[in-house]
Amino acid sequence: MDKRYRKAIIAGNWKMNGDNTSLKTFFKEVKQSKTPKNITKNILCVPATLITAAQGLSKSSKFSVGTQNMHFEQSGAYTGELSASMIMEAGAEYVIIGHSERRKFFGETDEIVAKKTTAAVLSGLKPIICVGETNCQRNFGVTLEVIRRQLKIALSSIDAVQLKKIVIAYEPVWAIGTGRTATPEQAQEVCKEIRTCLREMYGAKSARAVSILYGGSLNANNAREIFEQYDIDGALVGGASLKAQDFLKIIEIGAEIIGK
Known about the structure:
This protein has helices at residues 20-32, 51-58, 84-90, 100-106, 110-123, 135-139, 143-154, 160-163, 184-202, 204-208, 223-227, 244-257; strands at residues 9-13, 41-45, 63-67, 94-97, 126-131, 167-170, 212-214, 234-237.
């Protein structure tokens, strides 16, 4: 499969799970495994309290470390928030922005996602920007319009050079944590539309270099057929990333299929 223009990325999102003990166990199992580590770019996005520990443990595993949220300001009276510079100082390289759970439970709008994206890039963090439609939006047939709107607003202040630092994750809201997964055809349709939109915004050369991930109840049982789709370059994995052996199996499948 000709995906040589972009990285194959397998990212895990631990959400509000994990502690130092489970983190040590995870990386111990990773170190003991024989899973290919140089074919895919492997990222573990942990709660902010575990960033520094994960950064230390990940060095021998060739994992990169990310976290799951940030504020768009660099400092100020924002009690409980963390800025991009704070996250980087703790040891994170990547940050998830605009996850549907942030949008749903914490009221994040497309405009806030755009501000966070810009702040992350300007600070040197690499954003994993999440886009996705609700079940209602899919049923009304406006999925592609919703995805385009979210993408265009998120990238509204990003130029072609900055785009090289960005990863896009398509996560249908109706599939997250529900056990439902988009069919390979549904996932490819949306990821192709994302690349088409990027092409319109930045040109073909820039668009073909952006890694687009799929997320939403993805696991080792359904990863293969998802990864076989041309415009899908990896995954943003939720629950299946909490156990090293489950996550490593997805990485192995990704290395076999996407890394060709």
